[in-house]
C-alpha cells in the first residue's frame, strides 16, 4: 500500500508561510479576480479564492460581470487593473462565455500581474528556464513532488496531457528539475507501456480513473491532477474521482495523491504564492 500525499495539509502549511511573509511586507498585496457570468462551479472557485486571499492577509478585489459583457468592456477592465497600483495579481476566471475571445483577454493581462501564468510571455519564460509566473496547478504538483522526493534529478517523468494550462507547464517544470520527461497525449502509442517507465507519473487528462494499476511501475510516485464528477453509488448523487483508479493504483505506487485532497488544494495556495511573488517583484520589496 502506498503512502498518500496529503495535499490539503501541505497547502494549509504553504498558506500559513505565505501569510507570514505577507505580514512582513510594508504594503498589502492585492489579487483581482474577474468572473463573467454565473457558472455555478466558477462562482464557488472565485468565492474560495477570495476567502483564502483575505485569510492570507492580502486584499481581494472581486469583479463580477454579467454573462453578456462585451469584449471591449472586459478588455477595459483588464487594462484598468493593469494600471491599478493596489492590484499585483489579475486572474480572469475561465472558461469565459463563448462570445468572448479568451486568448485576446489573457493577452491583455500585464505579464507582471499574470498570476495564472497563462500569457505567452510567461509561457515563453518558463520554456526558456527564466523566472516568470508559473501556472498554479503545475507549480502545486512540483512543490508536492519536491517535498516528498527532494532532488528530482535523473528521474523518468511521464506527463499524460499536453494542455497549456496543465500538461505542458508541468513537463517544463520537471525538465528544469533535470527529469527525463515524456509528454503523452491522445495520439500516443502504447500509453500503458510508456507509463510503466515512469518514476513520476502525472495524469492530467480529464478521463475518470483511466490510469490502471498495471500502468504503474511498482514504487512510482503518482500525481493525479484530474477532477472528474461521476455518478455516486447512491442514486442522484455524484462524487469526485481523478484520472487514476486510486484504490488499485495505491497498491502499486510508492506515493500517490488522492482526489479530492491531493493536487486540488495546492492550486489556490499557489495562486497566493504567485500573487506574493508578483507583489514582491513589482514593488522591489522582498521579505
Ligand atoms: P484538457 O485541456 O482537456 O487536456 C487534456 C489532455 O489529455 C489533452 O492533451 C489530451 O490529448 C489528453 N487526453 C485526452 N484523452 C486522452 C487519452 N485517452 N489518452 C491520453 N491522453 C488523453 O484538460 P486540462 O485543462 O489539461 O485538465 C486535465 C484534467 O485536470 C481535468 O480533469 C481538469 O479538471 C483537471 N484540472 C485540475 C486542476 C486542479 O486544480 N487540480 C486544475 C486544472 C485542471 P490531446 O492534446 O491529444 O487532445
Describe this structure in words.
- The structure is a single chain.
- A 6-stranded parallel β-sheet has the order 1-11-8-7-5-6. It has a 3-stranded parallel β-sheet with strand order 3-2-4, with helices on both faces. It has a two-stranded antiparallel ribbon with strand order 9-10.
- The protein has helices at 7-24, 40-55, 71-83, 102-108, 120-127, 136-149, 167-176, 191-195, 246-249, 264-283, and strands at 3-4, 30-36, 59-65, 89-92, 156-160, 180-184, 200-203, 221-224, 228-231, 238-241, 255-256.
- The chain starts with a strand and ends with a helix.
- It is 40% helix and 17% strand.
- By secondary structure, the protein is an alpha/beta fold.
- The longest helix is centred in the C-terminal third of the chain and has 20 residues, at 264-283.
- Bound molecules: NADP nicotinamide-adenine-dinucleotide phosphate.
- NADP nicotinamide-adenine-dinucleotide phosphate is lined by residues 137, 160-163, 165-167, 184-187, 191, 204-207, 225-228, 263-264, 267.
Profile the largest sheet: 6 strands, parallel
Tell me, briefly, the overall form. globular
Order of helices and strands: EHEHEHEHHHEHEHEEEEHEH
Termini gap = 41 Å
Secondary-structure-based class equals alpha/beta
Output the strand order for the largest sheet.
1-11-8-7-5-6
Give the strand tally. 11
Number of helices: 10
Name the ligand types. NADP nicotinamide-adenine-dinucleotide phosphate
Share in helix: 40-55%
Low-confidence stretches: none
| Average pLDDT over all residues | 97
Beta percentage is: 15-25%
Radius of gyration: 19 Å
